[in-house]
Amino acid sequence: MKLKVYVDRMSQPSRAILIFCKVNGIDFEEINIDLTKLQHHSLEFKNVNPMKQVPAIVDGRFKLFESHAILKYIACAFPGVADHWYPSDLFKRAKIESVLDWHHTNLRRGAVGYVFNGTLAPLVGRKLIPKVAAEGEILLSASLETIESFWLTDGGRFLLGSTQPSIADISLVCELMQLEVVDDEDRIRILKPFTKVKKWMEDTKIATRPHFDEIHEALFKVKGILQKRRISAATLKINSGSKL
Amino acid sequence: MKLKVYVDRMSQPSRAILIFCKVNGIDFEEINIDLTKLQHHSLEFKNVNPMKQVPAIVDGRFKLFESHAILKYIACAFPGVADHWYPSDLFKRAKIESVLDWHHTNLRRGAVGYVFNGTLAPLVGRKLIPKVAAEGEILLSASLETIESFWLTDGGRFLLGSTQPSIADISLVCELMQLEVVDDEDRIRILKPFTKVKKWMEDTKIATRPHFDEIHEALFKVKGILQKRRISAATLKINSGSKL
Predict the structure, then answer these.
(1) Are A90 and B73 in contact (CB < 8 Å)?
(2) Considering only alpha carbons, which residue of chain A is nearest residue B76?
């Protein structure tokens, strides 16, 4: 029985799992749970993940949610996953655990707070909350500074100075890719001070191509829609201004 | 060279690591980093953990921070740690990872938001923020409901239906013990609906005695001080009221 992966490609941890599975040649079935249609609240999906969140997996009789737990499970349960993704070496693995734990309460919290409350909320019927978005941006920038000055300082192209990517690289870069949906000016402004971060994002994309680009197509589609809306809104503003 | 464990016993993840080490007979040196004296901002401690947070460990040349990563490292690096703490079985371990990841963005976020912003902030020179505390309480109660109705439903006395505790039990119960410092009425009100949670907390205490009680003495000392302050403040209020 194939591994079932329940995802919405607009969700950054969903994309991380899809990319990881594809890069490692894992035979899986992708099941789309459309968050904008509130499919994560369906009774059927509640049987998969009672927390009503994507990503989640079903592997035979085994059910699991939380993206980091899923990445580790897949890295260990399927043959052929190269060791660098989740090293069996105790010290290397511990450091990756440390990055992943740090991610929860820093980069992820900041990025989600900023992107969701500043841009994405209306897509799932919620209101924008500029104050929460602003708080998110502060934590996001502090987290980017930590990646730039600490997690990327040990020589290699990837986190912790590794010469090859780990599940932490995929998880964190997919999080940062979510910035594509905000206004381009804002994204460029936020990332501008962080040269190493931008290089690392590019290196992670290259290391996981062509899957990285393919899995991110959905995000770029939404980016395009939001950009058009912004242009329409700006044009409307200019036109209504000229009529005054 | 002994394992060095940098902690403040007022920090709940610090206590989790101390209890875990003591229960498992690990030979370690406890180094107190007094958060109220801002010792976590010292240059010396920055060399141990650049994130300026406890807990952190130094094991020979190896440095590590983030409490879950530390618990897993110790469980794997030291001989004699019973398998139930962090099972080598792939499926059991994956479920524990899932609880630990869930903890970061649910119970921990809720409990810290509530306890720190509603009670502890002044001890480290910060202001109380009642609005953030109230938001924290909502997430804390929702997380308690999830523990009660989901994580504790599989039969055993511990999380995931286990008959013996894991690192997740220690981590989550230490988090909930932080509620001891809030007003007793509030703690009792918040925990009241959750019979299984209260039983599980008691079972975890029993399973890790006498270390659990010993390590929590510092917390109960602060609880006593805060209780006295509350009584003094209430008395002052009554007295000044009677003078009106």
Answers:
(1) yes
(2) A90
pTM of the model: 0.95
Residue B243: what pLDDT? Answer: 55
- Whole-angstrom distance, CA of residue B170 vs CA of residue B71: 10
One domain for residues B193 and B103: yes
First vs last C-alpha separation in chain A: 66
Is A94 an interface residue toward B (CB < 8 Å)?
yes
Cα–Cα dist A45/A205, whole Å: 31
d(Cα B57, Cα B70) in Å, to the nearest integer? 7
Would residue A237 count as lying in a domain? no
Domain match, A218 and A98 both: yes
> B106 with B128, same domain?
yes
Inform me whether the pLDDT recorded for B74 exceeds 70: yes
Question: Which residue in chain A is spatially nearest to B142 when comparing CA positions?
Answer: A51
Same domain, B184 and B98: yes
Closest to B98 (Cβ–Cβ): which among A64, A108, A146? A64
Q: What is the pLDDT confidence band of residue B124, given thresholds at 50, 70 and 90?
A: confident
From the list A95, A197, A91, the residue with the least C-alpha distance to A152 is A197
Residues of chain A found within 8 Å of residue B90, distances taken between Cβ atoms: 73, 76-77
The answer as to whether B210 is a domain residue is yes
Give the number of A-B residue pairs with CB atoms closer than 8 Å. 71
Count up the domains in chain B and report the number: 2
Element of type H or E holding B112: helix B107-115
Question: Is the predicted pLDDT of residue A101 greater than 70, yes or no?
Answer: yes
Contact B72 A97 (CB under 8 A): yes
Q: Do B73 and A97 touch (CB under 8 A)?
A: yes
Q: Is B67 on the interface with A (CB under 8 A)?
A: yes
Domain match, B41 and B122 both: no
Q: Is the pLDDT of residue B154 over 90?
A: no
Same domain, A120 and A152: yes
Is B228 domain-assigned? no
Structure tokens that stand for A97 in this block = 């655990």
The answer to whether residue A50 neighbours chain B at the CB level (below 8 Å) is: yes
Residue B71 lies in a domain: yes
Domain limit, last residue, from A81, A97, A115: A81
Task: For residue A213, give Cα distances in angstroms to A85, A216, B32, B93, B142.
Answer: 19, 5, 48, 32, 37
Do residue B13 and residue B114 come from a single domain? Answer: no
List, for residues B192-240, the tens digit of each pLDDT value. 999 999 999 999 999 999 999 999 999 999 999 999 998 888 888 778 7
Range of the domain at A34: 3-81
Contact A77, A86 (CB under 8 A): no
- In this structure, are A75 and A188 located in the same domain? no
